[in-house]
Design a protein that fits this description.
Length: 271
């Protein structure tokens, strides 16, 4: 350590280096922490506390370090600066004056040891988390929409009503000449003409028949007997129990069991 010049009269306890060291220890701050906060190399702070002027940069820089260090520790920077000026060796002052024409050398004051000290901006972290959550939310919305579009219900034969089954059933023409599907056989061809229906009930049954004009030919519960009906085809036929009913279209027998769903039948019939 360089001995202060003979023109200084500071003892160890009153010197600026001792005051800096005592204030730092009272504040319970390590040299590493102070160096990181002040952007001053640790060895320069140590040199200030030890008043080791030979290990400090030129006097102007060193004095600035002392003032900043004093402010950081809560000391009077003017007092520290005066103490520094009084303690700084004369021979080093003259050497600094002679070196004013030499290029400035890096003092290390802009260096900071960050490999052991990493700071994160909390607002940036929150923003990143928010973006991730938003991305996940949008991804789930798109996935759900895609699933809804690809999972549309497909009608099966079990979902088709009795009327649709009767209208769409395959044509199975029996010996009577009336198709099992109830589609027109075009027996006479040409223009549509009125047709006759003969309904024979062996027991009471609910029978409802309407023609193409919407006229009700028979409706509701009917007693056993024979019923002759006439209207414009096609006819909409609904029977609650085909076991009690016999049906003929233009004198041709209709196979009701071809339209049956259990004992009930609902279908459209045309010659």
């Amino acid at each position: 350590m360089t001995t202060p010049s003979s023109n200084t009269n500071f003892n160890a306890q009153g010197s600026f280096g001792a005051m800096l060291q005592q204030a730092r220890k009272a504040k319970q701050v390590s040299l590493d922490d102070a160096a990181n906060e002040l952007f001053i190399l640790k060895r320069h702070l140590q040199a200030l506390e030890n008043e080791d002027f030979s290990d400090l940069p030129q006097v102007a820089f060193a004095r600035g370090f002392a003032i900043n260090y004093a402010k950081y520790l809560g000391l009077d920077p003017v007092r520290i600066a005066s103490s520094f000026d009084a303690a700084y060796p004369n021979e080093l002052k003259s050497r600094s004056a002679n070196n004013t024409q030499s290029p400035l050398q890096p003092m290390g004051t802009l260096q900071r040891d960050t490999h052991n000290r990493i700071r994160f901006n909390p607002l940036l972290i929150i923003a990143v988390i928010g973006v991730i959550i938003l991305a996940i939310f949008l991804f789930r919305m798109v996935s759900n929409a895609s699933k809804e579009n690809t999972e549309q219900p497909i009608s099966s034969s079990e979902d088709i009503s009795a009327v649709e089954q009767a209208q769409g059933a395959a044509i199975n023409t029996d010996v009577t000449g009336v198709s099992a599907s109830g589609s027109a056989l075009n027996l006479g061809g040409g223009d549509v003409a009125p047709a006759t229906l003969d309904v024979k009930l062996t027991d009471a049954a609910v029978v409802t028949i309407t023609d193409a004009t919407g006229s009700s030919l028979i409706a509701g519960s009917q007693n056993a007997g024979d019923y002759q009906l006439s209207g414009m085809p096609p006819f909409n036929v609904q029977i609650d129990d085909i076991n009690n009913v016999r049906l003929m279209l233009n004198q041709q027998s209709v196979a009701l069991n071809s339209y049956a769903n259990g004992s009930q039948a609902s279908f459209e019939l045309a010659p």
